[in-house]
Amino acid sequence: MEKKNLDWKNLGFAYIQTDKRYVSNYKDGKWDDGALIDDPNIVMNECAGVLQYAQTVFEGMKAYTTEDGHIVTFRPDLNASRMVDSAKRLEMPVFPEERFVDAVVQTVKANAAYVPPYGSGATLYIRPYMFGINPVIGVKPADEYQFRVFTTPVGPYFKGGVKPITICVSDFDRAAPHGTGHIKAGLNYAMSLHAIVTAHANGFDENMYLDSATRTKVEETGGANFLFVTKDNKIVTPHSTTILPSITRRSLMYVAEHYLGLEVEERDVYFDEVKDFAECGLCGTAAVISPVGKVVNHGEEICFPSGMEKMGPTIQKLYDTLTGIQMGHIEAPEGWLKVIE
Ligand code: PLP
Ligand code: COI
């Protein structure tokens, strides 16, 4: 298969249309067989549930070309089960987990020419999503849904790749106690747009959200969880019921403990202790691990000893090990890589 002629090394995190997408429709209480189609556009009624009341959930994952030339995805079973949790919370029908994985495999295979080559630094981002599609005007769940998967080749999420970024403590809250912060619902991102535009206008790359109940604890950013490294080289990540349970974070905690022999802790992280950490990173499918050099809280700066030039040594080791597993030159734990072709 011949690869598309794209400038792989200079891709940003942006949408590029690829050839095929997967679609399955839910009607009369059941999902149809699903199929790959060519048309990237969706026609729906003006009163569709997703348009009026934001009934939509999604996932984000990537396909990689390994050193020996295979195309793989990373732990797609976990994305499938997280989408079940998201759908249930928004009163949507569940798309069966094994069908989710199969739809991802079919879509990646059909777009194999867009999977960036090994060593290019780029990957194929995969976006499974589903939404209420029939007309809904009273506030209630839709009766009909569409599940889709599209792909798009991407480069780094933050401009500058793996250069440390500067983030600010947001005055806005991302998620309420007992709300929807722990699921991947479009509504969580809609309400974060004003906060991210404000952060960018003030010269910051991202927001650090605090817990909305007490505003004393670190939660996450708009699109990634936090990892901190203590001065005695322990890995600490915030525990919270209102953050998205990141698959990357869970994988990194495993890598830290089992590959690097580090102590790991998932616990409340108070903003007051952030100044005492040696390193900080944002982790997620899109972000991979993006190092944070500085956190600004209303003019007060916390500068991590790792600085603004390069990743700190422990975040670097985590990054190298995780990407080494994903690219197939470090042995993966059982079941982490799904070989597509
Ligand atoms: N937190 C939020 C709010 C996200 O949108 C994402 C991205 O998916 C993550 C964390 C990271 O999750 P994962 O590692 O599963 O991609
Ligand atoms: C991902 O990492 O896959 C996400 O969905 C984050 C998004 C903000 C791009």
Please provide the ordered H/E string of secondary-structure elements: EEEHEEEHHEEEHHEEEHEEEEHE
Oligomer: single chain
**What value does the average pLDDT take?**
97
Tally of helical runs: 7
Morphology: globular
List the bound ligands: pyridoxal-5'-phosphate, 2-OXO-4-methylpentanoic acid
Return residue spans where pLDDT drops below 50 for at least 5 consecutive residues.
none
The overall strand count is 17
Cα radius of gyration in angstroms: 20 Å
Largest sheet: 9 strands, antiparallel
Descriptive terms for the model:
single chain; 341 residues; alpha+beta; 9-stranded antiparallel beta sheet; 8-stranded mixed beta sheet; 7 helices; 26% strand; binds pyridoxal-5'-phosphate; binds 2-OXO-4-methylpentanoic acid
Note down, in words, how this protein is organized.
This protein has 341 residues and is an alpha+beta fold. The protein has helices at residues 49-53, 76-89, 97-110, 186-190, 193-201, 247-258, 313-326; strands at 21-27, 30-31, 35-37, 56-58, 61-65, 71-74, 123-132, 145-154, 165-169, 206-208, 225-229, 235-238, 264-267, 279-284, 288-297, 300-303, 337-339. A hairpin with a 2-residue loop joins strand 15 and strand 16 (300-303). Helix 2 crosses helix 3 (97-110) and helix 6 (247-258) crosses helix 7. It is globular, with a radius of gyration of 20 Å. The mean pLDDT is 97.
Give the secondary structure arrangement, pairings included.
Layout: E1 21-27, E2 30-31, E3 35-37, H1 49-53, E4 56-58, E5 61-65, E6 71-74, H2 76-89, H3 97-110, E7 123-132, E8 145-154, E9 165-169, H4 186-190, H5 193-201, E10 206-208, E11 225-229, E12 235-238, H6 247-258, E13 264-267, E14 279-284, E15 288-297, E16 300-303, H7 313-326, E17 337-339
Parallel strand pairs: 9-10, 9-15, 12-13
Antiparallel strand pairs: 1-2, 1-3, 1-8, 4-7, 5-6, 5-7, 6-17, 7-8, 11-12, 11-14, 14-15, 15-16
Helix pairs in contact: 2-3, 6-7
